[in-house]
Amino acid sequence: QVQLVESGGGLVQTGGSLRLSCAASGRSLSTYGMGWFRQAPGKEREFVATISWNGASTRYADSVKGRFTISRDNAKNTVYLQMNSLKPTDTSRYYCAASTYGFSADPTTFVSWGQGTQVTVSS
Question: What is the mean pLDDT of residues 112-120?
Fold first, then answer.
């Protein structure tokens, strides 16, 4: 089992940028597909982005496509989410997750989750 810890969240203005990091411990990330999800109060957890074990394949939710970039550095055991052109609708708590399915946008296929990091985008 891999343990995940997110960081990099904060308060930014509309149009600003943030880079979230997800640091893993306990096991190497090299065998996991990785994903980012987000959840706002009163709403269901929402898929944001996913990346294959070697970084060769990525997929994004339509709401963030062209603005967010997921990447990974297996040597550092870290996954990143670069968020540009942020909008108030991006305000949410962002979660990193690891999947043994290989490459997935389905939250039920992820076996490990971090505690999340808050992102707030002001108008």
Answer: 97
- Per-residue pLDDT band for 40 (boundaries 50, 70, 90) equals very high
The CA distance from 109 to 104, in Å, is 7
Q: Is the pLDDT of residue 78 over 90?
A: yes
Tokens of 57: 């394949």
Contact yes or no for 91/119 (Cβ under 8 A): yes
24: phi then psi, degrees, rounded to nearest 5: -105, 150
Distance CA 76, CA 25 (A): 10
Eight-class DSSP state of 108: G
Cα dist. 54→29, 33, 51, 60, 95 in Å? 9, 8, 8, 17, 20
